[in-house]
Amino acid sequence: MPKLTPHPMHNSTRKLLAMKKNFKPLITAVVHPVDDYSLSGAIDSAKAGLITPILIGPVDKIKAVAKQEKIDLKPYKIIATEHSHEAAEIAAQLARDGKVEALMKGKLHTDELMESVVKKENGLRTGRRMSHLFIMDVPNYPKPLFLTDAALNIYPTLLEKKDIVQNAIDLFRILGFGVPKVALLAAVETVSENMPATVEAAALSKMSDRGQITGGILDGPLAFDNAVSKEAADIKGINSSVAGDADILVVPDIESGNMLYKESRFLTGNDGAGIVLGARVPIILTSRAADSESRQASSALALAYWRHCEKQGIKL
Fold this sequence. Notes:
Blueprint: H1 12-18, E1 26-31, H2 36-47, E2 51-57, H3 59-69, E3 77-80, H4 84-96, E4 102-105, H5 110-117, E5 131-136, E6 145-148, H6 158-174, E7 181-185, H7 196-209, E8 217-222, H8 224-228, H9 230-235, E9 248-250, H10 254-268, E10 272-277, E11 283-284, H11 292-311
Parallel strand pairs: 1-2, 1-4, 2-3, 4-11, 6-9, 7-8, 7-9
Antiparallel strand pairs: 5-6, 5-10, 10-11
Helix pairs in contact: 1-11, 2-11, 4-5
């Protein structure tokens, strides 16, 4: 079978943490941090100089976790709420009013947090579809892989995929990584009317050719092996500048993306950072089971993204 060429393990977390430079920490609303992972991750990110957290949630629960984990809460502001839904609503309003620069998901479901974010009256929507992006550190791949969308959009339409792709490209370029190679994934590398994902991947590639998607090199449909293995692409006779060298993987739906990310995360132990793009502020959004290191990496990613946007005069 085609094999990936072994490379020294890249530590994406270390690289992301290094990107903070002398950036001022991101003022961040931490929504419902009522378990050890979410509270410890926020506090560790604060100690690393990545965020200045405002903890929003039921005070008794937050303090109980802090006592259990031996966390000193004295340096941090807490806004008391009765439940997670109220915490999400207050966090979105703080972002709307410019009192925080980012949101961080605690122990609550993604859809509960995003319900408050997408409300028109909270003013966090832009003209583009919001989407989630993971940066994965895969041991047998020579560079970090961007994966989108594995957490937010369930069955995105073609035009929604256009925004998902553009969000990922913009992040890649804003961070100074250059021009990304974008692989539009499907089960096979040929177009079939019986497999809508292949048709939409081909359409997105053509949209890039016509300037409807800018800043990246797109190709698709590509099966996963063709996207990350040059040997696999050569065996199948695929002539592509993206095949075997992808920077960004675009999955057809949330089910395939979520399984791909979690398979990689739990079977290889790779690092991962995740944020939501397309809102007025970055949203640090990891799995509820994400450890402190992943939360710090995600905080570093949000910090670098926001400060680079400020430096380049980009308004989200």
